[in-house]
Structures are given as structure tokens and as C-alpha cells.
UniProtKB/TrEMBL annotation:
<feature type="binding site">
    <location>
        <position position="131"/>
    </location>
    <ligand>
        <name>Mg(2+)</name>
    </ligand>
</feature>
<dbReference type="GO" id="GO:0005737">
    <property type="term" value="C:cytoplasm"/>
</dbReference>
<feature type="modified residue" description="O-AMP-tyrosine">
    <location>
        <position position="403"/>
    </location>
</feature>
<dbReference type="GO" id="GO:0019740">
    <property type="term" value="P:nitrogen utilization"/>
</dbReference>
<feature type="binding site">
    <location>
        <position position="212"/>
    </location>
    <ligand>
        <name>Mg(2+)</name>
    </ligand>
</feature>
<dbReference type="InterPro" id="IPR014746">
    <property type="entry name" value="Gln_synth/guanido_kin_cat_dom"/>
</dbReference>
<dbReference type="GO" id="GO:0005524">
    <property type="term" value="F:ATP binding"/>
</dbReference>
<dbReference type="Pfam" id="PF00120">
    <property type="entry name" value="Gln-synt_C"/>
</dbReference>
<dbReference type="InterPro" id="IPR036651">
    <property type="entry name" value="Gln_synt_N_sf"/>
</dbReference>
<keyword id="KW-0963">Cytoplasm</keyword>
<keyword id="KW-0067">ATP-binding</keyword>
<dbReference type="GO" id="GO:0006542">
    <property type="term" value="P:glutamine biosynthetic process"/>
</dbReference>
<feature type="binding site">
    <location>
        <position position="220"/>
    </location>
    <ligand>
        <name>Mg(2+)</name>
    </ligand>
</feature>
<feature type="binding site">
    <location>
        <position position="328"/>
    </location>
    <ligand>
        <name>L-glutamate</name>
    </ligand>
</feature>
<dbReference type="GO" id="GO:0046872">
    <property type="term" value="F:metal ion binding"/>
</dbReference>
<protein>
    <recommendedName>
        <fullName>Glutamine synthetase</fullName>
        <ecNumber>6.3.1.2</ecNumber>
    </recommendedName>
</protein>
<dbReference type="GO" id="GO:0016020">
    <property type="term" value="C:membrane"/>
</dbReference>
């Protein structure tokens, strides 16, 4: 879309405000809003200034001036504002016009440029399955003398005996019993449908929605794949709509990987493939799961670099509460066709040559999608360039339920890191594949690790409520 097309859209839709947005290190969006009367062609040339020192992991106060450069391909009309507003994603530049090396969106674009320069293919396509919970009540506190969280949902398994409803209507969702039931067990059909409606109006092509496995309102909405940066833009749009529709219904949505103990957590399974023009490069009819050698090498790169990747795809302390055996969590670093106990699954049902893809099941939605998708692509390209054979390295194929194996059999299978700090250690030891082509810089990685270690320490030094259960009577 040209700048003139955007200006025409502002006029045609009687837009009163233009919301300029960028994404921080953690993947959260920030915005500055201009009256549409202050937006003209020069705005898209000169950008919008902001204070980078107020964003964690960006710049110090002595060099805080930064510029948002709007991307005209990312615009959509905000579905929630009372005053007609046009949203636009931006890249971050320094005052002298250089692309800021710590800008996650610019890193995603550099990864796409590196793919084209590598000769491997012309485009990488991504499709995340980002799961979430919809709760009715969320309360938490962490202070000197208090630490707790409490969540509630009208459809939660623990509410079968609750009286406060004015007559309990039953039909609660059991633990691990929430996969695609109909109403009245699934009480959130209309909420998800409203989310889908607004996603479609905002330009997303939505394929389906359904209740997910866990109790207490776990949900999933799938939108169609696109190129790397566009898909990351779409995921931010998706989360924005999910959060705000839930709020409109008097509920609250969270993409936190493990908000509940004892039931499945929320992942972000990421489907990915590479094309050369219109030709899919991951398909080879008759091979294992109809995968080409390139696709297998891509899988090899993902699994070989997985411990380091996970620092970017699962970058929270809470991520590792989900990555434990027994809750459909993909903790095993192997690949398999149609097997959801493997870290890399190859979908085989109703798959066409153009739909042939691999699915990395370990990530979750605390990931910054621009960084996570870029890192996965770079790991895959490294596997292709080095011809990493996942079978020769013992990564599969593993076509059996890994959860049912004996402890002795499991010893041969690599697992994901057990903590955020372990993943950060792996990233520090294995980051060269990320700096290929200047996509990530050593400065970015060092800064990222420092920010994430601070988060891990903030959790480690605090007293956990369960410690009272274990140790108070010592």
C-alpha cells in the first residue's frame, strides 16, 4: 500500500486519529497517537519521535531520541476505539536514519533478507497456533509479606460445588476435558466468534476456532500463514483483539503459558515452510512424511539449536512450568509425523505440496514473535547449509508416544532446558547461527540475555507460597 493509499484510507473512513505502534524486546506493543489532521506524506518520510530510554532494553537517557518509521503495509482500522482510528506498525530508527539494531521488527525483516541472499529460497511462511485462557476473575499480589495468585472461571472444574452462581448450572469442563465440546460445556463460543469477526474485519484470514484441552476457558483461534514479518504483525493484531474482546465481555484473556497448576498450559505451535517463488521446497512425494531433504535439514537445524532457540521462543520463567512431561508439552527434542509428543511434528492429514510444513511445538506466546520467527528461520537455514541430518544425530523419526516410554528408553532422548537460565546459558554458548548476515548482533544478544537474567533473578529471590507448605514447620 502506498503512502497515498493510506492517506486516501484516512479520508474515506473519516479517520480522526492515527495510532503509530512499535514492539519492545518482550513483544509488547506501545503506541503514540496523532490527530489525523497532523498526518501527511511527510509523516511517513520523517517518522514519529519517541523516548527510547523509557522502554526496557532499548537506550539510555543520554541517547534516548528515537524514531518510529511507519510501514504502510501494516495499517488497519482499530475495532475498539470510539473515535475512528487507524493503526500502523513501525520500525525503529536512530535519529540519523539508521535501522536500530535492537528493534525486533527490523530483525525479522533482516532475517527475510538473509533468506533471499542465502539462495535457499525466496520466502519463509509462518503460522502460529497461539493458545490462551479466558478467565472471569484474576487477582495476584507479590509484596514483602504477601504472595499469591487466584484465578476463576465459571466453567472451571473446581466450581462444580460453588453456590455463588445463584443456582449452579453444572456442565463444567473437566481437567484435560476441554477439547472441542459443544455448548453448554463450551460456554465461550460467542466470545471466540466475536474475536474472529473482528479479526476478519481487521484483515486476518481466520481458519477456525475451538475450545482447547484445559479446564477454565482455554481457547485457540487459527489464522492463515503469511511471510515472517507479516505473520508477526498479525500475531500482535490477534492478541490485541483477543485481549480487548474479552474485556468487552467482562472477562480477561491471558497468553501466559502456565496460569494453572495440574492442567495443560498454552503453547504457540509454529508451522513453517520455505518457498522459491510459487514452488514449495519442503515437499517430496513418497519420502518420509513427504518431506524433502531440505525440510529434514531444516528440522535438523531447529533441533540442533533448540536449547539456544528456546531462550527466544520460551523466554519467561513461567514457560518452564509448561515444559514438563505429562501435559502434552513438547519437551522431547525429536521429530515425528503426526506425533504431538515430539518437539517437531510433521502434519500429515490433508496436506498438499504447498501445505507441506514442519511444526515446532515447543514455543509459547511469551515470545516476541519477530525474534522467535527470525531465530527459527536462521536455525533452519543453518541446518540446510550444513546439511544437518536429524536422523543421523538421533533426533528421530520417533513414531511412538514418548510419554509412555520407560525411563531407560527416555535417556537417549534430548530434552529442552529446565529453566530460563539454562536456556540463556545455551544461547550464550550457541549464538553464531543468529549473527549470520548481521540479522542479530552480538550487542543485541548480550543485552537480551541481561534483561532476561534480571527477570529470572526477580523470580528466584522471591519467596514462593508453596515454600510455606514445605518448610514453615521446620
Amino acid at each position: 500500500m502506498s503512502v497515498q493509499n493510506v492517506l486516501d484510507k484516512i479520508k474515506e473512513n473519516s479517520i480522526q486519529f492515527v495510532d503509530f505502534r512499535f514492539v519492545d524486546l518482550s513483544g509488547r506493543a506501545h503506541h503514540i497517537t496523532l490527530p489525523s489532521t497532523e498526518v501527511d506524506a511527510d509523516t511517513f518520510v520523517n517518522g514519529v519521535a519517541f523516548d527510547g530510554s523509557s522502554i526496557v532494553g532499548f537506550r539510555g537517557i543520554e541517547e534516548s531520541d528515537m524514531v518510529m518509521m511507519p510501514d504502510t503495509e501494516s495499517v488497519y482500522v482499530d475495532p475498539f476505539t470510539d473515535h475512528p482510528t487507524l493503526n500502523v506498525m513501525c520500525n525503529i530508527h536512530t535519529p540519523d536514519g539508521e535501522r536500530y539494531e535492537r528493534d525486533p521488527r527490523s530483525i525479522a525483516q533482516k532475517a527475510e533478507e538473509y533468506l533471499q541472499k542465502s539462495g535457499v529460497g525466496t520466502a519463509a511462511f509462518f503460522a502460529p497456533e497461539s493458545e490462551f485462557f479466558i478467565f472471569d476473575d484474576v487477582r495476584y499480589e507479590s509484596s514483602m509479606n504477601t504472595s499469591f495468585f487466584s484465578v476463576d472461571s465459571e466453567e472451571a472444574a473446581w466450581n462444580t460445588g460453588r453456590k455463588e452462581e445463584g443456582g449452579n448450572l453444572a456442565f463444567k469442563v473437566g481437567v484435560k476435558g476441554g477439547y472441542v465440546p459443544v455448548a453448554p460445556v463450551d460456554s465461550q463460543q460467542d466470545i471466540r466468534s466475536e474475536m474472529v469477526r473482528l479479526m476478519q474485519e481487521s484483515g486476518l484470514r481466520v481458519e477456525r476456532h475451538h475450545h482447547e484441552v484445559a479446564t477454565a476457558g482455554q481457547a485457540e483461534i487459527n489464522f492463515r500463514f503469511d511471510s515472517l514479518t507479516k505473520t508477526a504483525d498479525n500475531l500482535l493484531k490477534y492478541k490485541y483483539i483477543v485481549h480487548n474482546v474479552a474485556r468487552q465481555y467482562g472477562k480477561v484473556a491471558t497468553f501466559m503459558p502456565k496460569p494453572l497448576f495440574g492442567d495443560n498450559g498454552s503453547g504457540m505451535h509454529v508451522h513453517q515452510s520455505i518457498f522459491n517463488g510459487d514452488t514449495p521446497l519442503f515437499w517430496e512425494k513418497g519420502a518420509y512424511a513427504n518431506l524433502s531433504e531440505m525440510a529434514l535439514n531444516y528440522i535438523g537445524g531447529i533441533l540442533h539449536h533448540a536449547p539456544a532457540l528456546i531462550a527466544l521462543t520460551n523466554p519467561s520463567t513461567n514457560s518452564f512450568k509448561r515444559l514438563v512431561p505429562g501435559y502434552e508439552a513438547p519437551v522431547n527434542l525429536v521429530f515425528s509425523k503426526g506425533n504431538r509428543s515430539a518437539a517437531v511434528r510433521i502434519p500429515v492429514a490433508a496436506v498438499t505440496p504447498k501445505g507441506c510444513r514442519i511444526e515446532f511445538r515447543t514455543p509459547d506466546s511469551t515470545a516476541n514473535p519477530y525474534l522467535a520467527f527470525a531465530a527459527m528461520l536462521l536455525a533452519g537455514i543453518d541446518g540446510i547449509k550444513r546439511k544437518i541430518d536429524p536422523t543421523a544425530l538421533g533426533y528421530g523419526p520417533f513414531d511412538k508416544n514418548i510419554y509412555d516410554l520407560s525411563d531407560e528408553e527416555k535417556k537417549e532422548i534430548r530434552s529442552v532446558p529446565g529453566t530460563l537460565n539454562e536456556a540463556l546459558d545455551a544461547l550464550e554458548a550457541d549464538s553464531a547461527f543468529l549473527t549470520e548476515g548481521g540479522v542479530f548482533t552480538e550487542d543485541f544478544i548480550a543485552n537480551y540475555v541481561a534483561v532476561k537474567r534480571a527477570e529470572a533473578k526477580a523470580v528466584d529471590i522471591r519467596i514462593h507460597p508453596h515454600e510455606y507448605s514445605l518448610y514453615f514447620d521446620c
